[in-house]
Design a protein that fits this description.
heterodimer, A: about 280 residues, mainly alpha, globular, B: globular
């Protein structure tokens, strides 16, 4: 690499092409996002004549009205409850199963593991009607659990695979020594495996959280009461109500994707690692 | 071996004097049995109840004409499947899924690969650009769809404004059967290219650099090394990226709803939005289940064939 630099002239046409190409892609990615952010600061009239640029007159009122409305906070609260329930359920159930698959040899273990990985093959949408009837018959329709339980069930396959691979890498000698010292499997799981596995638990937790936070189909089918709606449902209704008042809708979109973007900036490493490496090994 | 320790521990549990022997034997079967009984069932129960059973029930319900209330009684055999296959919208949805896959392979994948090759090298701003390009992927599909329904809006949108600067009457892209699907395809590329780029970057960073250096020392130019060394080394990742593009297309729904709801006149339905519009929103359980079973069959057939043919070594 370094020798090409010294041999070649400082002006490199391929380098220039690369920079222009990257800049064009970056602009295409950024412009819709910035237009959404700034659109929320404009009046409807200004939006019509100036959708691209910075607002000439900053309308803080659009954002303030949403931030001071009970509706916005209720949507975020519902999303947070459903996502947290899903993450907690997934982490507990998946880590227990993964621990069993990683450390205990028993007849049929590989069969049961492949049974669980069937879940990777098809999306929740294929069976959403019977799922609706099942949730209804269990009396969970229109409850947070009615959304969280199926979501956790569908994230199990990937989570168990990721966790099991990590648990298996914990040195066997550690388990052996602990058992000789009179530690039970369950105590080992609680006091050794889980603390050592914080990175992978964080990764699995983040993927599950992001998926649940963004989910639309399952809540749409399982919930009927406005008061329980997570934000993707709420924003669709908001858009229906204010159909062409785009300045308000844009402000609302900005405020609802803000938590995702903040989480992304904080947990970049886990998200990228989880969504790519996790997917690779699936 | 397992049986013997089990019986020992059973005796040990009954009469106290055998307990020390169990401890000497090290890991006791007893402890493992507890784990098996406590740790495995929750996952199996949750998975069976909410993932496996519904698929089986979909196959059962698909033989009935049923609105979801009471018990299904009106047995109509395979008629639901016939109705699905006779619906023009079903074939449109299938064609649209095919289009999504085609665009993913022809545009998204080369774009992602090119960007990955540029951004896998270290230079100022490379990491920031990677994160920027990955950002659309983590945004909710619903939010992305709404943002682009603004971008495409014929009165207030960005596209309309560009059109007006050229003095043309702005089109309503999402409202025309000819342009709705292409508009959706553009959003799909915008949203997902960053994910595939990250896959390629991860693969490029774990490549054995000495192979590329060896090729360069042997006189290969940069582009020759790229074509004959780097790309072949990336084949497993390319196959994986294709796999995700196809699986993703088969479950695409959230993005379509805020943009077009599958319309106008079913022009931009995907399989799942077709399922939603025709089965779920009208509570036609039998008909919707039949669509679900067809989609399930497509997914499973595809996954197994693809794994067998293209991903044997992984």
């Amino acid at each position: 690499m370094s020798d090409t630099k010294t041999i070649r002239a400082p002006f490199d046409p391929s380098m220039l092409f690369k920079m222009v190409f990257l800049a064009v892609v970056a602009i295409i990615v950024v412009v819709p996002l910035l237009a959404t952010l700034f659109g929320g600061f404009k009046s409807l009239g200004e939006l019509r004549v100036n959708p691209f640029g910075l607002p000439r007159h900053w309308e803080w009122q659009n954002y303030a009205d949403i931030l001071f409305s009970a509706r916005y906070w209720q949507l975020l609260r519902n999303s947070l409850i459903i996502s947290t329930l899903t993450v907690v359920l997934t982490l507990i159930v998946a880590s227990m199963a993964a621990f069993t698959f990683a450390h205990i040899k028993f007849y049929g273990s590989s069969m049961l593991l492949s049974y669980l990985t069937l879940g990777l093959l098809f999306p929740a949408a294929t069976a959403v009607l019977p799922l609706f009837i099942k949730v209804r018959d269990l009396g969970l329709l229109d409850t947070y659990f009615g959304v969280a339980l199926p979501q956790a069930a569908f994230s199990l396959a990937m989570s168990v695979l990721l966790l099991r691979r990590f648990f298996k890498d914990i040195p066997y000698e550690l388990l052996e020594a602990a058992l000789v010292d009179g530690c039970s499997y369950i105590k080992f799981f609680r006091y050794v495996t889980l603390p050592l596995s914080r990175p992978i638990l964080a990764t699995v937790g983040t993927i599950t959280f992001v998926n649940s936070w963004n989910a639309y189909l399952l809540p749409l089918v399982m919930l009927n009461t406005d008061a329980l709606y997570p934000w993707p449902l709420g924003i669709m209704i908001y858009q229906g109500e204010y159909s062409s008042e785009w300045h308000l809708i844009l402000a609302f979109i900005t405020l609802t994707i803000l938590p995702t973007i903040i989480l992304f900036l904080l947990a970049q490493k886990h998200i990228v690692a989880g969504l790519t490496a996790g997917a690779v090994k699936g | 071996m397992a049986r013997r320790t089990a019986s020992v521990s059973a005796i040990g549990a009954a009469g106290g004097e055998m307990v020390p022997q169990v401890a000497v034997r090290g890991p006791s079967w007893d402890g493992r049995l507890t784990v098996l009984i406590l740790f495995l069932p929750p996952a199996l129960l949750l998975f069976t109840l909410f993932v496996v059973l519904p698929i089986g029930e979909a196959a059962w319900y698909s033989a009935f004409n049923w609105n979801g209330f009471g018990r299904p009684t009106n047995w109509i055999g395979l008629d639901n499947y016939r109705f699905v296959l006779e619906t023009r919208a079903f074939w449109l949805a299938l064609r649209n899924n095919g289009l999504i896959i085609a665009v993913s392979l022809a545009i998204q994948l080369p774009l992602a690969l090119a960007l990955a090759l540029m951004l896998a090298e270290r230079f100022r701003g490379a990491v920031a650009l990677r994160m920027l390009f990955f950002m659309p992927y983590i945004l909710a599909e619903i939010a992305t769809g709404l943002i682009f329904s603004f971008v495409y809006d014929g009165d207030y949108g960005l596209v309309a404004s560009i059109w007006r600067t050229f003095g043309a009457e702005p089109p309503h892209l999402l409202a025309s059967t000819n342009t709705a699907m292409p508009a959706v395809l553009i959003v799909i590329v915008w949203k997902y290219f960053g994910f595939h780029m990250m896959l390629f970057i991860a693969a490029l960073q774990s490549l054995d650099k000495s192979l590329i250096e060896a090729a360069r020392i042997d006189g290969a130019t940069r582009s020759q090394a790229l074509r004959h060394v780097v790309i072949p080394l990336l084949y497993p990742t390319i196959r994986l990226s294709v796999f995700f593009a196809i699986v993703g297309s088969l479950q695409l729904f959230d993005l379509v709803m805020p943009l077009t709801r599958g319309g106008p006149a079913d022009a931009s339905n995907t399989m799942v939005s077709f399922l939603y519009n025709n089965g779920i929103s009208r509570m036609r359980v039998g008909y919707g289940s039949a669509i679900g079973v067809i989609l399930f069959a497509i997914c499973v057939t595809f996954a197994f064939t693809y794994k067998r043919w293209f991903m044997r070594d992984e």
